[in-house]
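Lab notebook, bench 4. We co-purified these components, and the gel suggests they stay together. Before we commit to crystallization screens, I want a quick structural picture of the whole thing.
Request: model the full complex, all chains together.
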Amino acid sequence: MNETFSFKRFGTYFKYDITQLWRKHSRAVLLIGFSGVIAYVLCVLFSLLFNQTYQAPGIVGRFVVFAVASIVLELYMTKFYGFLTDKKEGSDWILVPASKTEKYVSMLLNTIIIIPVAFLIVFLGTDWIICLLDKTAGTALISSTSEVINSIQLGATDLDELKEVGMSPVLFMIMAVIGSWANYLYFLLCGICFKKNKIFYSILIIFAFSILMSTLSALVIPGIDFEAMLDNMSEEKVKAYVKGFMTAVYIFTVIYAVGMGWGVWHRINTIKH
Amino acid sequence: MITIDNLAFSYGPVSVLENISMRIEPGSIYGLLGENGVGKTTLLTLLCGLKKPMAGTIDIDGRDPFDRKPSLLEELYYLPDEVAPVNASAYSFAKEAGVFWKGFSLEKFVQVLHEFEVDDKQMMNAMSAGQLKKTYISFALACNARYYFMDEPTNGLDIPSKTQFRKAITKYTSEESAIVISTHQVRDLENIIDPVIILDKRDVLLQASIAEISEKLFFDYGTEVNPGALYLEQIPGGTIQVYPNTTGEESKVNMEALFNAVYKHKDVIKAMFKQ
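Here is the predicted assembly.
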């Protein structure tokens, strides 16, 4: 018997895992996914009630709702496998006869692909339908996203300049996806580590980290005269600095994602009840 | 076979198990007895790999349970004292989770569940604690596992269900299975457990079959008090006394009296069974 990974057993486990997730969290994920529709209905309803005019939310308003829903989904990542810290449910999970690798891969697939994609399909799909039925709502978010990408790609000179400083749109998109995965994994890790107040503690850690970084910056930055630095610096040097900064951001993003992935793996390997 | 060697475990500074060594052979229903806090549940969770020993080893047919390899996991089933309600019918739960145990039989699950008079279509999160326990017991037995670790399986069961549990455990487990049942309800299970393991924090006080116990100790239910009794308890219409069996006469082992005798005379009993 293959003790580490068997495709047949993984398939069985993945189906089981996704069934359990659907049973426990489908309503919450759908609610987050349908938040655009809810916001649209509320906006129309309030405009009719208080202004006696029909007013659908514009693209900016709908984008704000999308951003808020995305953050809520990230926070909700603490809940999907949060049961692992529960003695009863966590013990059952550990003792399901599948390998740790199969459980880990299934967890990753669900957390960084299945759930976010399901959310995007529901949110952007319903937004597109709203815009199709109600022309006053403007462009659908999905169309405007592709418009933004197209506009970036059309400007060939700008594109070259962006590439020069390490900000090619494709690389930027890849890094945005990796960054999102890293965030999902961070909240997943917090969910399987903290027994109680999972969301509160995960936010607390972010606050603590922000305060630490701000303090460090406050200690370093006052000693640098940026204005004088920039005056004496050639354009090439500025570009080199921006590129260096972007490279550092990319490296940090990758390290952050890999670190969170490793953290989840380590937790799965060492969890005890 | 399960071999436990010099096993130790502690919760922070509080030591629970120390230098525990024993062997568990297939084909028997072991009764794991001990006072509160001696580490019965801890031992069961160590056996199924939910915890890692601080010292010593557990070997199950050449495998370490904490490795949580699928080949071992599909051969064992751990039934905790408190079980988790699931947002599914008993049938769906068993159908979905059972596929991971190679010997699992859905028909057997339904049959055992019906013998416990629980409807397999009932939602598990709407069940009473007793019904939920019976569903998990049925699931455990339907897994046809080689090793069973059951923690207080009769807790929360009504009287007919306790009888049904005894019947089911003897009827639906294979002769190749090793079953370890930790319990305080010795009267519920005294007719099925053999051998008996009595645990102390720092020692296994007794690990012996009912035949060995009956050979070495005599359980006297008469009225005449024996001055050499290791344990004596007044009961309506007489006494229960436990004393060394010097005549070779057979007697029915009373688990509660045995337990109390062992705890009262740890060294005497240990010496007696070491020989």
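The longest strand of chain B covers residues 14-24. Worth comparing against the SEC data before the next meeting. Chain B has two domains: 2-205, 210-274.
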